[in-house]
Amino acid sequence: MYLKYSQLITSRTLICARKSLLYKIVPEPSPFRCKKSEKKWQCLNVQTSGFHTTQKLHFHAPVILCLGSILCGSFIRKRWLKLSPTEQEMIIRWYKQRRHIFHGGWKILSAILIIYFLTCIKRDPIVGAPRFVLFNEAQRIQNAKFLFKVVVQSESNVVPHDNHMYKKVARIIKKLTNANKEIFKGIDWDVTIIYRIFNIASIPNVLILPDRHIIILADIFNLIKSDDQLTFILAHEMSHEMLYHPSQTLSLGALSNNVILLSTFLIWVFYPPGVAAMLSSFMYILHAIIFACFKRSCEREADKVGLQLAAKCCIDSREILAFWEIMKMYDELTGASMFRIPFLNHHPSLEERKKITIRLMPKVNQLRDLVGCPELPLRDPRDFLPQYKRELEDELRRNPRLLGMRW
Ligand SMILES: [Zn+2]
């Protein structure tokens, strides 16, 4: 993902659009085709109709469960305080007499959970690092379907499949998969280009769902100035998937949510409301900081791996530096960077990403040499930055934005 506005990661699109981008591209008017008898959006309806109930539950579940744990905790505390000292003493005695059973049960449960979580560790196929993946394929696809529906919202929000942007993306994905056959062999990617995220805000962004479905917001094409830049952006998203980042995010999110709910319940049982509210808030903020830290580490890793994948397509890594500069200009011109809180940000700063790219440039050039790429052009792409800035200013004059978003 390139901008910091959305952390959605997920799912499948038009079932009929599931044709592989690898082998079917330019000769057809669109790389995506439904059966002739079906309208494109009807195919999506068929896909999504099976999880309506889950969708409703997902949407409200975190808030309902959080409130539920607070109410349950408060209720138990109030009941306890209403008991006479003798009754309290009796319950404490009852617990103490059986504490070995409780402690033993807790230890067995902990051991089972630890063993189960250890079985959820998978190694990714690129760097071979251990990843915590709680969900199986079917569950990931179901989550992905739900997120797709949330992000895309309606048929009118999807860029028609005969648009030239699809062909461009398909061509570059084919190039990336051909150049990295050992990694992408037998893997299909889906792509949907949309106008607005949640059908509300128009922002330049790209995201990937856990079923290898890349969702591109059409506005990003206003910022991308070359195929090399698009290659890197797509390689970055594909790296997320190959490194199991979307699945890991879902898994850690689910696990941490349960831990937080249990902790919230216990806090409201053991502390008076004022203190409990403070402790709960502190816990939620801490969770947001830790989760943002994890997300930033995923982004750094995807930048690193994406750059190496793109290098095998003979990209000029200076184009990436130019892209970071364009993003910085965009942030400054739209005011998007003003309200960003660094430690809650899910992406490293653009300055940091620029430094990562510079650090990796010698390795990228080595990879280029290894696969026999031509010499880099003499003209540095960053020489065009003043022109890009003028173009961006013109675009923003035509389509003004607030905090990067056009409503
Ligand atoms: Zn990303």
Description:
The protein has 407 residues and is mostly helical. 60% of the residues lie in helices and 5% in strands. The protein contains 13 helices and 5 strands. A hairpin with a 6-residue loop joins β1 and β2. The longest helix is centred in the last third of the chain and has 39 residues, at 273-311. The protein is elongated. Residues 1-57 have low confidence and may be disordered. Zinc ion (ZN) is lined by residues 1, 236, 240, 299, 302.
* Distinct ligands: zinc ion
Oligomer class: single chain
pLDDT < 50 runs, ≥5 residues: 1-57
Summed over residues and divided by their number, the pLDDT gives a mean of 84
Number of strands: 5
With strands numbered from the N-terminus, the spatial order across the biggest sheet is: 3-5-4
Question: What's the overall geometry?
Answer: elongated
Structural class: mainly alpha
Radius of gyration: 25 Å
Please describe the biggest sheet, giving its number of strands, its sense, and whether it closes into a barrel.
Answer: 3 strands, mixed
Beginning-to-end CA distance, first to last residue: 20 Å
| Series of H and E elements | HHHHEEHHHEEEHHHHHH
Estimate the strand proportion.
under 5%
Number of helices: 13
Helix content: 55-70%
